[in-house]
């Protein structure tokens, strides 16, 4: 398809969301770690129609031992950092986890909508000798927080509540909780995203 397009004067457009999430269905390059034989001919011929599996199915079928193994030997994080500290952030990610694939996306949801942010997505098996999931993630979180960046909260977070509130401005959130008397009815957002509270 692509080679045929080179020979024509046509311009093909692709929606930006589709382009950025072209790897999402394969769970950001991690499907090869989950199903290591997934690229073999016999598997593709017989069971290729099953791939990629839904993440909810994978979570439903994994045992506690597999979950612990995955937690201790994988790094899955998305961090938004200002473009001004991209070089230092990439160096930190390389030093702390050194995963073989890293995805970068730009985002301009900065302070006053004038800052350009880059989403650094690191997914995979770290290839550094001193990887420890909690300590490594906390060091990366501290760097991002100190540079006025943000962690995507669908990944594991090991921040304390104070650190979480330093990363995300809670002033309007706290006003709304007080205004609608939510304290006794709903947990704080930190309780929904923190592993320490959930586990």
TrEMBL record:
GO cellular component assignments: cytoplasm; membrane
- Give any GO molecular function from the UniProt entry: Delta24(24-1) sterol reductase activity
Q: What is this protein called?
A: Uncharacterized protein
A Gene Ontology annotation in the biological process aspect, one of them, is:
steroid metabolic process
User: Keyword annotations for this protein?
Assistant: Oxidoreductase
Q: Which InterPro entries match?
A: Diminuto-like
